[in-house]
From TrEMBL:
It holds the Pfam family DUF2878. This is DUF2878 domain-containing protein. The keyword Transmembrane applies. Keywords: Membrane, Transmembrane, Transmembrane helix. The chain crosses the membrane at residues 12-39, 51-70, 82-103, 115-136, 148-167.
Length: 186
């Protein structure tokens, strides 16, 4: 159930954020995203690893989406509030935060297959952004659109394997920690 709950929950966040932004509303995506992330972290085997991964994912989101917004390669519906002002809208950062929870659940298989994470990032991310543009207009790539799409493909080709690697590393670190504590006390 953890796999399916995570997969379906992430999709609910994505659709809520994208459709809400298309209607000029930030709060639906942020609210549903925050509730989903909280639910995932409360149920996590290693919550500290989840928090670390979430912070990294949101930081990457601020940089990647910020470059997209600041260069005007793309414009976002419901662009305010943003971090920093004029940068990444909160609704898309809610998607990034929610995405971070998939790497130890529904996308856990990518932790051992970084080449696949790279491929899915390079191909899947631009397709998701195009879906948000064509389906609802919550993200609009400015012409020539190849600039923004190339940025997304290259950024996600780095971000996805990096986050998958960190998920594997931090989960294994926290898994070993109780054993190390027991060993040092003996």
């Amino acid at each position: 159930m953890n796999f399916w709950g995570n997969l379906i929950g992430y999709q609910v966040v994505w659709f809520t954020a994208v459709i809400g932004a298309a209607h000029g509303k930030t709060w639906p995506g942020v609210t549903v995203g925050a509730l989903f992330v909280l639910w995932q972290i409360l149920r996590a085997d290693y919550p500290y690893a989840e928090w670390r991964l979430l912070i990294c994912a949101v930081t990457l989101g601020i940089v990647i989406e910020g470059v997209l917004a600041r260069t005007s390669w793309a414009t976002y519906a419901a662009s305010a509030p943003a971090i920093p002002p004029g940068g990444a809208p909160l609704w898309i950062l809610a998607i990034w935060a929610s995405f971070s929870t998939t790497l130890n659940r529904s996308l856990a298989y990518l932790r051992e297959r970084l080449w696949l994470a790279w491929l899915l990032g390079a191909i899947g991310a631009p397709l998701a952004y195009l879906g948000a543009q064509r389906g609802w207009g919550s993200v609009v790539f400015q012409q020539p659109s190849w600039r923004g799409l190339t940025w997304i493909a290259c950024s996600w080709a780095v971000a996805m394997p990096l986050l998958a690697f960190l998920a594997r590393r931090w989960t294994s670190l926290y898994r070993l920690k109780p054993a190390l504590i027991r060993t040092t006390k003996s």
